Amino acid sequence: MSNEKQVDSGRRGLLVATAAAGSVVGLATAGALVSTFQPSERAKAAGAPVEVDIGSMVPGEMRTVEWRGKPVWVIKRTPEMVASLKTTEDKVADAESKRNPDEYTPEYARNQWRSIKPEILVAVGICTHLGCSPSEKFKSGAQPSLPDDWAGGFLCPCHGSTFDLAGRVYKNKPAPDNLQVPRHMYLSDSKLVIGKDEKGEA
Question: How far is Cα 30 from Cα 169, in angstroms, rounded to an integer?
């Protein structure tokens, strides 16, 4: 009897130790899962609005900033660039930004310039075809892979989609939509916020 009791108590001790170890492992795993679902500080920062100082920009200059992990172009268009948008209206597929407007064009940018101010374009530099990054081709005139009457804009080198200086895609190109205009607003004449507008929407 005493031997059986010793065996039972030994088994009981082993079971208790095993259960305790399992609980520790279980808690550690649960903790790892919880931390996995919580966004990191970097992830939070990636989704936060971004301020851009445009006070020193000169006409014809383009700056690229990162917002939500995407390249966002800020372009200060020259008067000639703004004027070119009239000449490209009949050549682009969606001149009035009516296709998927909630996704690609905020209501205050549904105009010929696709912007709040005619001279400043804010656009996500990602082609709406397969996510490639177009190249800036601001110089007008005939160039490789571009038409002879090119008025300036952007060329996606992957599959040849072209966009005018408002980010509007030309007709009969692989890209189905214009370049995205993110929500943005002006804090002053020299300060721009990307990722938020006056309605507080991101």
Answer: 48
Cβ of 99: how many Cβ atoms within 10 Å? 15
Q: Please state, in angstroms and rounded to a whole number, the distance separating the CA atoms of residues 181 and 101.
A: 10
Asked if residue 148 lies in contact with residue 105, where contact means CB atoms within 8 angstroms, the answer is: no
Q: What percent of the chain has pLDDT over 90?
A: 65
Cβ contact 150:13 at 8 Å: no
Distance of CA 139 to the CA centre of its chain: 26
pLDDT in tens, 125-138: 999 998 889 999 99
pTM for this model (two decimals): 0.75
CA 195/CA 130 separation, integer angstroms: 23
pLDDT tens across 2-37, in order?
Answer: 444 454 555 555 444 444 444 444 444 334 433 334
Residue 168: which of 106, 104, 119 has the closest Cα? 104
